[in-house]
Amino acid sequence: MPRRVGLPGAAELFRPTGTDGTQAPAAAPATNGAAGLAIEPSPQGTGRVRHEEKITVYVSSDELLALEQARLTLRARHGVAVDRGRIVRTAISLAMADLAARGADSDLVRDLGQS
Asked: What is the DSSP string of 45-101?
C-alpha cells in the first residue's frame, strides 16, 4: 500500500504575514521635502519579518569578515543573536534616519562625498 504525503495547499503557502491573520500593513516612509526621496526615519531595522524585496550587495572579504565578527561580538558580549541580514537592515535604517535628521551634515553624505 503506497503512502501518500499530505502537502500544504496554496492558501497555507501564500498566507498573510500579519500576526492577526491579515496582511501586515506597510509603513509609509517619510519624505525628504528637498529631494522628494522616501526616507525611513526609524533607527530600528525590520527585524524578523518576511521581506518582499531583495538586493544583492557585493562586499570585500575584509568587509564580510568584519560583518561576521560584529555578529559574533553581538552574540558573545551582548547576548544579541542576529543574522548578518538583520545587522545590515539596521545599519541601513540608522543611515537613513541620520540622513533625514541631519541632511547635508549626515555621515552618509560626508562619507559618500569623499569617495
From this structure: ---SS-----------HHHHHHHHHHHHHHHHHH-----HHHHHHHHHHHHHHHHHH
**87 near 95, Cβ under 8 Å?**
no
- Supply the DSSP symbol for 104: G
Confidence class of residue 49 from pLDDT cuts 50, 70 and 90?
confident
| Mean pLDDT, residues 24-42 | 50
Q: Any idea what the Cα angle at residue 82 is, between residues 41 and 22, rounded to 5°?
A: 60
Whose CA is closest to 103, among 27, 45, 41, 46? 41
Q: Are 44 and 90 in contact (CB under 8 A)?
A: yes
Residue 75, pLDDT above cutoff 80? yes
Specify whether the CB–CB gap between 38 and 92 falls below 8 A: no
